[in-house]
Structure formats: structure tokens, C-alpha cells
């Protein structure tokens, strides 16, 4: 049975590294490239949350489709099949909910953490940390 791997992508270099890792490590797996549309995210050019309308959601889905296209274009092997999907909500909870509702065997995501001070302690980003702590499937965090 082939594995089903969810790769969370937030348009960061860490997420792209996670996609490339999943494709190289699990060449025969079903890859689902996933983007959580966060209705609570405020960008630098916004002073408040946007209204949650159908047009806002359509715009977010169009942005996700562009993100997916760019992620695919950056992959070396152009013959690979990558499924895509989105869901609306807080990224950690949305990722975990999607995994529970789908036939996903493993999660691969980028870690936005960094080393601090001379101890070089490994720190995860907040999304990665919550997913690692709460997932009921194995999680690989790529840095």
C-alpha cells in the first residue's frame, strides 16, 4: 500500500524544502500539497482583519492555486503527480483536522524555528510544534 503524505505549504522556503524532502524520500507516495487559509492572519499592509466574504475566500483560493503552481514549478521532477487542497482555519488545527478526515499516513512540514544562543537548541515554529504535539500520525519537520 502506498503512503499518503500531507505536505503543508505556507509559501515559505521551509515549506518548499519540506515538499522537496517528501518527494525525494517518498517517491511512490501520494503527495497532498496543503494550504491552510488563515482567516485570522493580518498582513503588514492591513491594519485589521478583512471581512470574511465569498469574494475574500475566492481571492484566498486563487492565491493558494498560485502558491501551488509556483511550488510545483520549483520541483526538479516535472513528471511527479502532486494533489492539492485547501481548508479555512487556524493552520495547526486545519492541518490536524484534514489529516483526521482524510487517508493521510504522515505529515511533512517546514519548521520556522531557529537556534538561539550558544546552546544551539532546536526550536520549532508554532504551527510545527502544535502539529507535532497533537498529530495522530508521524510528523517530519524539515529545516
From TrEMBL:
Similarity comment text for this entry: Belongs to the universal stress protein A family.
Domain UspA: 1-143
InterPro entries for this protein: Rossmann-like_a/b/a_fold, Universal_stress_UspA, UspA
Pfam family, one: Usp
Top-level taxonomic group: Archaea
SUPFAM superfamilies: Adenine nucleotide alpha hydrolases-like
Record-given protein name: Universal stress protein
Amino acid at each position: 500500500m502506498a503512503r499518503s503524505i500531507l505536505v503543508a505549504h505556507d509559501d515559505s522556503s521551509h515549506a518548499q524544502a519540506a515538499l522537496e524532502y517528501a518527494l525525494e524520500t517518498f517517491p511512490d507516495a501520494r503527495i497532498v500539497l496543503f494550504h491552510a487559509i488563515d482567516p485570522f492572519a493580518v498582513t503588514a499592509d492591513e491594519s485589521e482583519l478583512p471581512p470574511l466574504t465569498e469574494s475574500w475566500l475566492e481571492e484566498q483560493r486563487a492565491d493558494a492555486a498560485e502558491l501551488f503552481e509556483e511550488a510545483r514549478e520549483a520541483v526538479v521532477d516535472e513528471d511527479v503527480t502532486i494533489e492539492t487542497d485547501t481548508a479555512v482555519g487556524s493552520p495547526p488545527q486545519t492541518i490536524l483536522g484534514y489529516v483526521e478526515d482524510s487517508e493521510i499516513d504522515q505529515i511533512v512540514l517546514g519548521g520556522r524555528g531557529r537556534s538561539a544562543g550558544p546552546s544551539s537548541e532546536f526550536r520549532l515554529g508554532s504551527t510545527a510544534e502544535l502539529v507535532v504535539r497533537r498529530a495522530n500520525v508521524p510528523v517530519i519537520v524539515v529545516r
